[in-house]
Write a structure and sequence with these properties.
about 55% helix; about 240 residues; 5 helices; five-stranded antiparallel sheet; alpha+beta; 8 strands; rod-shaped
């Protein structure tokens, strides 16, 4: 019995000894690892990583900022191009409008005068001829008329005003009859003085008994030329 107790104590002592030895060895290894570890190196490594990361972020920021500036530059370029195109478009539209106006392809309104010529039934008074209308039209043009029409037929550079068998007049190929209503847009005083002052043709027509009247109107509408403009010799 005593032998067994003694044997057990020995075994426990050996076991405790081995455990203590193992513990000492583990602690010794840990101290060794701690002693061999360079804390400064770890700190330097972290600082280097941080600097590298900061440099990477700086590069990314610069790239992003550059793309942002490029985008803004393109947007401004698009705006300038759009504005330039709009200005060009407006200029072209204005020039086209002026061309159409000179060609009589637009309805227009403005101040001017209206001349009305009526045929009389008196045989001794000569009839109104195409030449009468042509002289009046030319006088209006010389007085600065911007647009002219006769019985709503727009007068353009290629308009023909002709007598047909001394019985009626054709304008732009259309037959017109009395009363002849001539509309002209422009300075009212200039237009009127071109017809009645210093031997104007309206004065001459009145002297021979023809019925002619002139009225100043602040808003006259002249219709556009509806015919086709043809050229034979221009290319």
């Amino acid at each position: 019995m005593k032998k067994n107790i003694k044997k057990g104590k020995i075994t426990m002592t050996i076991t405790l000894g081995i455990a203590c030895f193992a513990l000492v060895m583990v602690m010794s290894m840990q101290f060794k690892i701690v002693n061999e570890t360079d804390i400064t190196s770890i700190e330097n490594m972290r600082e280097t990583e941080l600097r590298t990361e900061l440099a990477n972020w700086k590069t990314k920021y610069e790239e992003t900022n550059q793309k942002y500036e490029e985008t803004i530059s393109k947007i401004n370029e698009y705006k300038e191009t759009k504005q330039s195109n709009e200005e060009t478009s407006k200029l072209v539209e204005k020039e086209l409008e002026q061309v159409n106006m000179s060609l009589g392809k637009n309805d227009i309104e403005g101040q001017g005068i209206e001349i009305t010529i009526r045929e009389t039934e008196k045989e001794e008074i000569s009839r109104v001829t195409a030449d009468d209308l042509i002289v009046i039209v030319n006088a209006l043009r010389l007085s600065g008329a911007e647009a002219i029409s006769i019985n709503d037929e727009r007068i353009i550079n290629m308009t023909d005003i002709v007598d047909i068998n001394e019985t009626y007049i054709k304008i732009n190929g259309q037959r017109i009859l009395s009363p002849y209503v001539i509309k002209a847009i422009g300075d009212q005083s200039y237009l009127e003085s071109g017809l009645i002052g210093n031997g104007g043709h309206v004065d001459e027509m009145k002297k021979i008994g023809q019925d002619v009247s002139i009225e100043k109107i602040n808003k006259i509408k002249i219709n556009k030329y509806n015919g086709e403009i043809k050229t034979k010799y221009m290319e």
